[in-house]
Amino acid sequence: MLLKAPRADDPHERARQFTTGRANNEEDRWSEHGLGHLLNPTDPDADDRDWIAQVWLNIIRKALGLSTTPTGFESLPAVGRVSISSPPLLGPFEAMNRRKHYRNQIKPFNFLSTCHVRAFGHPHGASPDRFHLIAPYERDSRRWLQMRWIDRYSNKTYRISTAGNHGTPRTARVKTYGEIIEEYAYHPEYKCADAHGQAAGRQTVGLLQRRHVRVDAITAIGKESNNLEEVDAGLVHHERNVYTVYADRKRDYWSTVVVPALKRLPLKTWERESGKPRRILIDARLGRRRPHQRHQELLVSVARRLNLLD
User: Fold this and answer.
1) Domain check: are 174 and 87 in the same one?
2) Angle at the Cα of 34 (from 61 to 242), degrees rounded to 5?
3) Which domain does 294 fall in, by range?
4) What are φ and ψ of residue 292, in 5° steps?
5) Which of 10, 12, 47, 79 is deepest in the core (most CB within 10 A)?
6) Residue 191 class from Cβ within 10 Å (0-12 exposed, 13-18 middle, 19+ buried)?
7) Predicted confidence (pLDDT) per residue in 111-160, tens digit
8) Does residue 48 lie in a domain region?
9) Which residue among 163, 179, 195 closes a domain?
């Protein structure tokens, strides 16, 4: 998240300057990252993002020990809009469209509403990795809790609720704007460290700095760019669905970390600790041949027990 603080020493003056900087200009800049995927809860058809400026203002005022102003939409279900603007975005709905008349299918350039299920809020029996609620686009926020929502994976219909802590057989407990804003304000910034160089956590305050990086291994991957539009639209729910790993056996964890560890102790020690034949251990130490996967896992566990690996 990016925020350039106004040049003022008094906290009240800083908050006042931020209020007048809601045009998101160069002097008082607030970020839409992390909230821009949600509809404007005060006017879903509006393109302005003043509501995000209000969220930022409340976050800053709370951090400065000042009073905050209720936004009035904290209890609403957090709803976003999916635009079927390209073939990759239409693809995930292929199974859902199957055997439906064309007029009932999800078609190019349709708008859909989507919401975000809270942890443990999935209906009973639903898989968190394969559950995504959508509905015809609805601009009236008063109807969001009354609508029937469709899981695009199973094609089953569900209600949504913002009450309680978990889902029911036919209801999903979804996140509210207030819950997402709270997560947004306290989410850990993994790329940054605190004033003492420790990894920043949810309760870290003060001026952050970049963390030092130690490279353990290099793995070539294709990431979100493979499914960029689907990720942006919230249609992909687990990283394994977008990662493509390009394995390099000369630079993987076994070759760069485990094999050097195998050479740090005498061969007899490895025979005694692992119970594996001498020939397997010699080939593994010299990198001539990799043991079977279960043998690799055993040697790694032994190396960890002997404090040879981090």
Assistant:
1) yes
2) 160
3) 253-305
4) -60, 155
5) 79
6) exposed
7) 888 998 998 999 998 988 889 898 888 888 889 999 999 888 888 899 99
8) no
9) 179
